[in-house]
Amino acid sequence: MTITARLLALAVPLGLLGGAYISQNGFGLYPCEMCWWQRYPHFTALVLALIGWAQPRQPLWIWLAGLAILASGLIGAFHAGVEYGWWEGITGCATVAQAGGDPLAAILDAPIVRCDVAPWTLLGISLAGFNFLISTAGALAVFTLLRREGAKA
Predict the structure, then answer these.
(1) Which of 19, 27, 86, 97 has its CA 20 to 30 A from that of 55?
(2) For 48-102, how does the pLDDT look when each residue is reduced to its tens digit (9 = 90+)?
(3) What is the pTM of this model?
(4) Do 35 and 96 contact (CB within 8 A), yes or no?
């Protein structure tokens, strides 16, 4: 199996999760509920890609990692549509309580993070939109590389 497909299946979720945690912890862009939904498939993709590195002759793991990356991208597309007002999303909001001190005060003072408001954009594209673009392109690249390798076998 091509090393490029395995590397991409590992790098895309690792890079996007890294960016998400830097945004959250470094810049205070706390995730809403739908942001978390986008992270779960990337966690899964990381595990599957690592198994793919341990089992390099079994492309199934990298195919599954690609599917998990694509799932995150599709969730990102839905979330971006909610942020842009193209369709209705969920009504719940998320809060982030700080550890330590009075638990009730921490909950009451925690910021409310809305799923229908993009906290940050670049060129009009939200973080959910970037997740859609990067994840979808990454998954399609993984699938293309795996298909090319399969055609050579």
Answers:
(1) 19
(2) 999 999 988 889 999 999 999 999 999 999 999 999 988 887 765 555 555 667 7
(3) 0.82
(4) no
pLDDT at 105 over 80: no
In the chain, what are the domain boundaries? 3-152
- Tokens standing for 122? 């670049």
The pLDDT score that the predictor gives to residue 153 is 44
Report whether pLDDT(2) > 80: no
Report the C-alpha gap between 142 and 120 in whole angstroms: 28
Here the tokens at position 87 are 């369709």
- Determine the Cα–Cα distance for residues 142 and 136; give it in Å rounded to an integer: 10
> The domain at 3-152 falls in which architecture?
Up-down Bundle (1.20)
